[in-house]
Specification:
The protein is mainly α. The protein has a single domain, classed as Non-ribosomal Peptide Synthetase Peptidyl Carrier Protein, Chain A (Orthogonal Bundle), CATH 1.10.1200.10. The protein contains four helices and no strands.
Amino acid sequence: MKTLDEFVALFAEQLDETDPSTVTAQTKFRDLDEWSSLLALTLISMIDEEFDVALKGDDVKNSETIEDVYNIVVSKK
């Protein structure tokens, strides 16, 4: 299982307009200017590919920070 820092780095790779060095575990991803439903689907796809975990839209919707998403992924492993 990847660490939280590795997860944050993978999350940051999905972002086109946000400087990856500004993304942390405590980043409230929905506050990012580029956050959209398309980016949410990209994130769900990345998690499925990298972690073999199927997130639901509600998992992302009920999360506030990147760490929240990571904790859900860990709980489903």
